[in-house]
């Protein structure tokens, strides 16, 4: 079995696309509109994709507080500087539970918790 994507319902496709492409650096793989009330976009950087689904008839979006999506970044400190420039608030962190990993949490425009992880190579 191979994991292929996570679907996220969004309340504003343009804001969500801007967040996932401009902030997280994902690329739009494909977009479609199966009917006049629905827009779907698949985004990826690598193999696993994020599917954003906008439905004009479903604007009641809620995410549980105990779920998050994780993305690897080159530098947590560099990412936090870039977030400040874009006006994105830090939700939690930074945390460094051991010398080899550092992470923070932010939220997407609809409140989905996003974990950003820096894997730190051991000194040789």
TrEMBL record:
<dbReference type="InterPro" id="IPR037523">
    <property type="entry name" value="VOC_core"/>
</dbReference>
<dbReference type="GO" id="GO:0046491">
    <property type="term" value="P:L-methylmalonyl-CoA metabolic process"/>
</dbReference>
<dbReference type="GO" id="GO:0004493">
    <property type="term" value="F:methylmalonyl-CoA epimerase activity"/>
</dbReference>
<dbReference type="InterPro" id="IPR029068">
    <property type="entry name" value="Glyas_Bleomycin-R_OHBP_Dase"/>
</dbReference>
<keyword id="KW-0479">Metal-binding</keyword>
<dbReference type="Pfam" id="PF00903">
    <property type="entry name" value="Glyoxalase"/>
</dbReference>
<dbReference type="GO" id="GO:0046872">
    <property type="term" value="F:metal ion binding"/>
</dbReference>
<dbReference type="InterPro" id="IPR051785">
    <property type="entry name" value="MMCE/EMCE_epimerase"/>
</dbReference>
<dbReference type="InterPro" id="IPR004360">
    <property type="entry name" value="Glyas_Fos-R_dOase_dom"/>
</dbReference>
<feature type="domain" description="VOC">
    <location>
        <begin position="2"/>
        <end position="119"/>
    </location>
</feature>
<protein>
    <submittedName>
        <fullName>VOC family protein</fullName>
    </submittedName>
</protein>
